[in-house]
């Protein structure tokens, strides 16, 4: 799976600019899907047909990643920028970003007078090596993603945009391994999650599913001075009970837990105090949808070295296959 993970996490795809990621995912799923569709926002939707006895199930994993967008260029050729999604100022200085055309920039900051302080985002700039505004190869409105190669150390996998390319990988693998299902399953590779779960919202409105399950990362409580949280890296997929945008459907949580227990898969129960996922927009779409989320434990979320464990990834696929190959009675 590491080749596919590397390919997806290294791809360019800030929210609203997911085309490259979509074109990498499409050939992976085409042989296994009964139908493929791209909607007006850019969501890629793969339908896997059921035997007619089950429910309509939407699986969502987001293709987009956090990034930056050029807001203004100084006459000396430095780019000021705004954030696309939740970019933390302390992850900026010294990092590199890449634009759609391949132009690479390094991030500098205005003079730091207090060493312990972190400048806000607006006191940073991108240097693409231009000598002036006129010769700058980048324009106002151009978006960039962070640049960082994939790293595998044993089972620990680090990259920018594990959030949520790892969810995309889990969706792809599940579609590949799901030989038979009672359900009409729609795998949605969604857009614009990092700016408010917008892609999943329109996809859920189109599909009107009975059940929605998001695949996304969650934070962990297992690093020094972490916010206390009962999720550790490597201890199995986390079944979401609550985050700051959603309380998962109680019956669906029960089924997820039951399937994990029956198949002897490791799992953890997740209560995330800050953040939400596409499951929130699925839950409150149409007349309401039974929604839940399988979360992949991840350290350093929204940094350029988001770190997951390969065993958790594998067990997330196993759990989702278990859920989708059996009846779902809510
Ligand atoms: Co995120
Ligand atoms: Zn995410």
What does this entry look like structurally?
- The chain is α+β, with helices and mostly antiparallel strands and 330 residues long.
- The chain folds into 2 domains: 2-65 and 160-325, 3-Layer(aba) Sandwich (Aminopeptidase); 67-146, Elongation Factor Tu (Ef-tu), domain 3 (Beta Barrel), CATH 2.40.30.40.
- The protein has helices spanning 2-9, 19-29, 162-177, 198-207, 250-262, 278-283, 310-325; strands at residues 35-38, 44-48, 56-62, 67-73, 78-84, 96-99, 104-109, 124-127, 143-146, 151-153, 156-159, 184-190, 211-218, 238-242, 268-271, 290-297, 306-309.
- The strands form 3 sheets. Strands 1-2-12-3-13-16-14-15 form an 8-stranded mixed β-sheet, sandwiched between helices. Strands 4-5-8-7-6-9 form a 6-stranded antiparallel barrel. A 3-stranded antiparallel β-sheet has the order 10-11-17.
- It is globular and about 65 Å long.
- The model has no long low-confidence stretch (mean pLDDT 97).
- Bound molecules: cobalt (II) ion (CO) and zinc ion.
- Zinc ion (ZN) binds at residues 62, 163-164, 193, 216-217.
């Amino acid at each position: 799976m590491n080749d596919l993970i590397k390919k997806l996490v290294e791809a360019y795809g800030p929210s609203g600019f997911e085309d490259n990621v979509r074109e990498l995912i499409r050939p992976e799923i085409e042989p296994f899907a009964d139908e493929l569709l791209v909607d007006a926002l850019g969501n890629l939707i793969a339908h896997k047909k059921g035997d007619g006895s089950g429910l309509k199930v939407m699986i969502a994993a987001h293709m987009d990643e956090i990034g930056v967008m050029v807001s203004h260029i100084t006459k000396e050729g430095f780019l000021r920028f705004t954030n696309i999604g939740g970019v933390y100022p302390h992850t900026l200085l010294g990092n590199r970003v890449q634009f759609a055309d391949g132009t690479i920039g390094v991030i500098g900051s205005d003079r730091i007078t207090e060493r312990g302080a972190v400048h806000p985002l607006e006191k940073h700039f991108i240097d693409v090596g231009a000598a002036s505004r006129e010769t700058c190869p980048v324009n106002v409105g151009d978006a960039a993603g962070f640049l960082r190669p994939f790293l595998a150390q044993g089972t620990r996998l680090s990259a920018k945009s594990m959030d949520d390319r790892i969810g995309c990988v889990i969706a792809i693998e599940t579609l590949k391994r799901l030989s038979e299902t009672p359900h009409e399953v729609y795998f949605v590779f969604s857009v614009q999650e990092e700016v408010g779960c917008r892609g999943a919202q329109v996809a859920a409105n189109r599909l009107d599913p009975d059940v929605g399950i998001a695949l996304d990362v969650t934070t962990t409580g297992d690093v020094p001075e972490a916010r206390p949280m009962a999720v550790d890296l490597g201890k199995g997929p986390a079944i979401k009970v609550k985050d700051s945008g959603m309380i998962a459907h109680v019956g669906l949580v029960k089924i997820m837990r039951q399937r994990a227990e029956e198949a002897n898969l490791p799992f953890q129960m997740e209560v995330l105090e800050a953040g939400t996922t596409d499951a929130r927009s699925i839950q409150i779409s149409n007349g309401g949808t039974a929604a839940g989320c399988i979360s992949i434990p991840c350290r350093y979320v929204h940094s350029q070295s988001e770190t997951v464990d390969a065993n958790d990834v594998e067990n997330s696929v196993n759990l989702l296959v278990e859920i989708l190959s059996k009846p779902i009675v809510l």
